[in-house]
Amino acid sequence: MTVSSDGGVRAFGDLLVYPLRSGVTVPRDLRGNGIKMVNMGELFAFQIIPPVEMARVDIDVTDESRFLLAEGDLLFARRSLTLEGAGRCSIVGEIIEPTTWESSIIRARLDRNSADPKYYFYYFMSPQGRRSMERIVEQVAAAGIRISDLARLEVPVPPLRTQHAIAEVLGALDDKIAANRRLADTADECVRAWFDSYKNVTENKLISEIVTNVRRTVPTDQIDRDAVYLGLEHLPRRNLWVSELGSAAELQSAKSEFAEGDILFGKLRPYFHKVCTAPVPGLCSTDILVLRSKSQEFAGWALAALASDEVVEKVTAASEGTRMPRTSWKDLGVVDVPWPGEHEVRRTSERIQALRVTVLAALEESRTLGSLRDTLLPRLMSGELSVRDAEAVVSNAV
Predict the structure, then answer these.
(1) Distance (Å, whole) CA 378 – CA 374
(2) Are 128 and 122 in contact (CB under 8 A)?
(3) Gap between the Cα atoms of 12 and 96, Å rounded
(4) For residues 237 and 290, is the Cβ–Cβ distance under 8 A?
(5) Contacts 24+ apart (CB under 8 A), 292-299
(6) Are 164 and 17 a contacting pair, CB within 8 Å?
(7) Dihedral, 242, 246, 251, 256 alpha carbons, nearest 10
(8) 256 with 265: CB under 8 angstroms?
C-alpha cells in the first residue's frame, strides 16, 4: 500500500473536532502552583511531549475542552527567533495530570473519524509538511504563524486506513525510542537513590579531592569539524544521560575538549541542574565545566555526587550574577559530599558504571532508530516507499 491521494487535500481546520486555540497568559503571581503548563521549552525539547515536570499555573479549567490538553493533541509554535522554529509541531504523549499550554503555542485537536493525529504529526515533521508550513510563516522581527493561516493550510488527506498504517510503522520506532528513554530515566532515579542512601555518613570529601577540572581549550582553527559538540542546549535538566549529540561542523569560536566518561557541569544558571556524563569524546561550550574523576574506580561515585540535588543547591547559592548567575570551579571544588569509605564508594561506582554502559547503549540505539525514522518519513509521505516495505525495515531494526 502506498500513500494515495484518494482523499485529496483539505484545509487543516476542516479536520479538527475543536477550533485551533492559543494557550493561556498567566500573571507572575499565579505561577508556581496549580496545574502543569507546556511552555516553548518543552515544545522544542520533545517531539512527543512526555509527562515531565513543567511550570505550574493556577487557572480555572472548568472548561476542559478549552484549557486542558489531551493525548494526541498537536502543538504548534506560534513564533520563534528562527524560520525553522516557527510552526514547529509536537504531539502530546501520555497525560497523567491536568495540563494546559502557554499563549505562544497553538493547540490542534483532530477529529479522529477522519484524521489520525500521529499521521499529521509525522506529516508536519516531513520535508513536505515543513515546506507547506513555511508558506504561512511571516518573518518580521521574529518568525511566526497565525491561527487563521494554519486553519486554511491545505494538507493531504489520504484514506484513514493509510494514515493509520503510516502512523503505526513510524510509531513503532518512536515507541522503542520512548522505551529507551524510560530506561534512562529509571537508571537516573536509581543512581540518585543509591547516592542518597549514604547522605547520613559522617565522613565527607571535597569535590576537588574527587575530581579535577580539565581545562583543554581548542582554538577555532584547530576544531575537528567531524567531532561531537555538546552545548548547554544538549544537556538535559536533572538527568545524567545525554540523548542528542550536536555537531562541531559550524562552530565559530573556541571550545572545551572532553573525553568519554568525563562529567559535564553546566555553570551558567546552575539551578537548571545540567550535570551529565559524556557518552563519547568531543567538544563542549565554555559555559560547561569539564570534570574528571581522579580515580577510575570512583568515577561512578563522582558522577552521582556532582549531579546530586545538594551539590547543585550549594553552587547555586554561591553563584555570582542576578539575571544570569554563573558558578565556577572555585565554588564547586569546595563543596563537600558524603564519603562512606573506599569499599562502599568502589562498590557503588561499579554499579553506576555498569548501569551507565546499558543506558548509553540504549540511547545510541535510539539515535540510530531516530535516523531511520527520519529517512523513512519523507519516502512514506511521498508514496515512494510502500508501508509494507517500511514495515519490513522497521521490523528488522526493532
Answers:
(1) 7
(2) no
(3) 28
(4) no
(5) 292/211, 292/212, 292/214, 292/259, 292/261, 292/262, 292/263, 293/210, 293/211, 293/261, 293/263, 294/209, 294/210, 294/211, 294/212, 297/346, 297/349, 298/210, 298/345, 298/346, 298/349, 299/261, 299/349, 299/353
(6) no
(7) 20
(8) no
Q: How far apart are CA 64 and CA 76, in angstroms?
A: 19
Q: Give pLDDT tens digits for 308-325.
A: 999 999 999 998 877 789
Residues contacting residue 26 through CB under 8 Å, at least 6 positions apart: 37, 57, 58, 59, 102
**Amino acid occupying residue 228:** V
The pLDDT value given to residue 32: 81
Asked if 306 contacts 265 with a C-beta cutoff of 8 angstroms, the reply is yes
Cell numbers at 234, concatenated: 544538549
The pLDDT value given to residue 257: 98
| Residue 239, φ and ψ in degrees, nearest 5 | -150, 135
Residues 6+ apart with CB under 8 A from 298: 210, 345, 346, 349
177 touches 142 (CB < 8 A): no
How far is residue 86's CA from residue 149's CA, in Å, rounded to a whole number? 13
Give the burial class of 391: count Cβ atoms within 10 A of its Cβ; 0-12 exposed, 13-18 middle, 19 or more buried: middle
Instruction: Judge contact between 207 and 305, C-beta under 8 A.
Output: yes
Sheet containing 79-80: give its strands across. Answer: 79-80, 143-144, 138-139
Please check the confidence at residue 139 and state whether its pLDDT lies above 80: no
Q: What are phi and psi of 86, to 5 degrees?
A: -65, 130
Question: Scanning the structure block, which residue is given the C-alpha cell 548509553?
Answer: 360
Q: Is the pLDDT of residue 141 over 80?
A: no
Question: Of 233, 204, 185, 202, whose CA–CA distance to 305 is shortest?
Answer: 204
- Report the candidate in 254, 249, 313, 302 with the shortest Cα–Cα distance to residue 276: 302
Nearest in space to 153 (alpha carbons), one of 351, 352, 13: 13
Q: Cell 544558571 maps to which residue?
A: 269
Q: Which residues does 291 contact at the CB level (< 8 Å), separation at least 6?
A: 211, 212, 213, 214, 262, 263, 264, 265, 302, 306
pTM recorded for the entire structure: 0.83
Assess contact for 151 and 87: CB atoms under 8 A: no
